[in-house]
Amino acid sequence: xxxxxxxxxxxxxxxxxxxxxxxxxxxxxxxxxxxxxxxxxxxxxxxxxxxxxxxxxxxxxxxxxxxxxxxxxxxxxxxxxxxxxxxxxxxxxxxxxxxxxxxxxxxxxxxxxxxxxxxxxxxxxxxxxxxxxxxxxxxxxxxxxxxxxxxxxxxxxxxxxxxxxxxxxxxxxxxxxxxxxxxxxxxxxxxxxxxxxxxxxxxxxxxxxxxxxxxxxxxxxxxxxxxxxxxxxxxxxxxxxxxxxxxxxxxxxxxxxxxxxxxxxxxxxxxxxxxxxxxxxxxxxxxxxxxxxxxxxxxxxxxxxxxxxxxxxxxxxxxxxxxxxxxxxxxxxxxxxxxxxxxxxxxxxxxxxxxxxxxxxxxxxxxxxxxxxxxxxxxxxxxxxxxxxxxxxxxxxxxxxxxxxxxxxxxxxxxxxxxxxxxxxxxxx
Length: 429
Known about the structure:
The chain is mainly beta and 429 residues long. It has one helix and 39 strands.
């Protein structure tokens, strides 16, 4: 532009004027910025288009820091905080202003509380042990088992669970953390014992174990009635031998849940004994138990026969073993012998009805060997009769009296595997 100046006297003078564009556009409002330590930001001036790049000067709190149109602040610290101003010069036209104030907030520092293993259903406090600065805030992610109390929370988990929370500083500087809580289940167990009543003669290497229904066991402890620790494993080796009752307590300890206990009583009982075997007759005997041993009622078994509640039994001649069993199932054995009885065979038969030697057979044979086979022959070897040991021959054959003479007999007793042979005299009136 050419400018002309004319005074009152009509004198004129002139000069040329050049208008230079403002190098900065739309930077009349300050851009205040708040960052967290460690974050990054870029400050840029909005330069006027179509002109040469102006001379730029950036200042922070009055101190020159850059001559670029843009400054990039990476991973800022408190040293970068302050007021940022600029100067832009285009062909002698100078513009200056405040770009904005950068506030750098310290990133929150904290320590997380150590978390112990929690028993299912029990409460535990989790969260921060320390937190700085004091203006920092904690927000917990919702969970049905969590109640927030600020920097900490009370949790009541039923199983392993992870809880999340966010730490922020004036709405920024957000840090998300997680706390995992391990949950122990309460111990549920019982002592595994098929039978706690043990016969004195059957103690052996008895062991009692544990059946764990639920929970993780940290340690085991067995104590006797004297409060002595007798085992620290899941198995109790029962070593008592004397008759009596013994009590043991099993204590199982968990990492977090209360210890639990269970008791067991083991009774060693005496075995029943057969005191004597009484002979009722040739084949029947009675077993008499010793009243000081075992517990009634009793059962008896002879040799390979089945148990019976009867104390009497029919036995053959020879060696036998009787087993007695009492109410507790305890057993013992007793050996006895039933002697085969001796007997006399009559040498004279007089069937006259006087009650003496009226028939051929021995009363002992009739009672002791009723199944014996008796055969009678005449003097010529003719078989006259074959009968059992409990039968008698009256000296007749086919209803007729046999003549008075000598007769031969043969007696086979299978029970004792023995044969008797001899003769007798028959006298008929």
